[in-house]
Design a protein that fits this description.
The chain is an alpha/beta fold. It contains 6 helices and 4 strands, in the order E-H-E-E-H-H-H-E-H-H.
């Protein structure tokens, strides 16, 4: 299976490019199939968070690092917690095994944009999560 993770700043045309280039059956938005409804995605995010605690995808140290980075963001506590939730959910993406191509619109490579990481934090992120980043 080939996995492509498209990332970049908000409003840079990522989704437009993906939709024009790839078959819609291959496209996932972050961690959901592109055509799922908002209600399905909201309910599913709870299940995905639970999945992260049962599967050893990332450890508590990595989770803590992401949480600290989210707390360093400007804005309300709600925005900080939402950024943390969005970052964590990126790791819960498990594409179907029968797919030959998966195109992820803002997967784990998008976390530096979500958390607005600086150059040093991006380097630290790459070191901490390189075993996952090399699969995309």
């Amino acid at each position: 299976m080939k996995m492509i993770d498209i990332s970049g700043p908000s409003g840079s045309g990522k989704s437009t490019y993906i939709n024009a280039t790839f078959d819609s059956n291959s496209i996932y938005q972050g961690y959901y199939k592109q055509n799922k409804s908002q209600i399905s995605r909201s309910i599913g995010s709870i299940a995905l968070l639970a999945k992260l605690f049962w599967l050893p995808i990332i450890d508590l140290g990595q989770m803590k690092w992401l949480f600290v980075q989210a707390l360093n963001l400007d804005g309300s506590i709600y925005n900080k917690l939402n950024a943390f939730r969005n970052s964590i959910l990126r790791f819960a993406m498990f594409p179907p095994k029968n797919s030959s191509l998966i195109v992820i619109d803002t997967g784990i490579s998008h976390i530096p944009f979500i958390l607005e990481l600086g150059e040093n934090e991006i380097k630290e992120y790459v070191v901490k999560f390189k075993y996952l980043l090399k699969s995309v």
